[in-house]
Amino acid sequence: MTRYCPAGDGAFEDWAERCPACRQPLQAEPPPAPSRMVAQPADEPVVFLATAPNEPVAQLWLQVLEDEGIRAMAKPAGPGYGAWGSVATFEHELFVLRSTHDRASAVIADLQADEEGTSG
Ligand SMILES: [Zn+2]
Questions:
Q1: What's the number of domains the chain is made of?
Q2: Residue 41 C-alpha to ligand 1 middle, in angstroms?
Q3: Each residue of 60-84: pLDDT tens digit?
Q4: Do 84 and 107 have their domain in common?
Q5: How close is the Cα of 38 to the center of ligand 1, in Å?
Q6: Overall average pLDDT of the 85-96 stretch
Q7: If DSSP states are collapsed to H, E and C, what string results for 36-100?
Q8: Which of 30, 40, 54, 70 has the fewest Cβ atoms nearer than 10 Å?
């Protein structure tokens, strides 16, 4: 009979009472996602955050959000690849996880205030 670490450290012989890695009592059933080392908040809905005027600005915002520990993504809001001009000139829509939206929108508001306040 084999017993399993509830934290996903693996399977052990049944003479082991506790996991040698994390000291938790072993259980008869394997944990639901044994191969996943890092939990991804994939179940959380992604919500619209803001529209950046072009790709460089979108990249800047993504970078600043990342520095704040907020995962964000951007997608072109223009007519798409293959249309006139470069995709870099299109507006980009930024999206974040719903739980980070309030914090993220405060960060973006600060950025936009900085831009308006910088005149030279
Ligand atoms: Zn363990």
A1: 2
A2: 22
A3: 999 999 999 999 999 888 665 555 5
A4: yes
A5: 14
A6: 81
A7: CCCCCCCCCCEEEEEEECCHHHHHHHHHHHHHCCCCEEEEECCCCCCCCCCHHHCCEEEEEEHHH
A8: 40
How much is the average pLDDT of 15-23? 89
Structure tokens that stand for 60 in this block: 């800047």
**Ligand 1 mean position to 119 CA, how many Å?**
56
Tokens, residue 69 = 């520990």
Taking the whole predicted model, whether its pTM rises above 0.90 is answered as no
Q: Residue 24: which domain range?
A: 1-38
Q: Is the model's pLDDT at 14 over the cut of 90?
A: no
Of 18-22, 42-46, 78-82, give the range with the top mean pLDDT.
18-22
Burial class (CB in 10 A: 0-12, 13-18, 19+), 108: buried
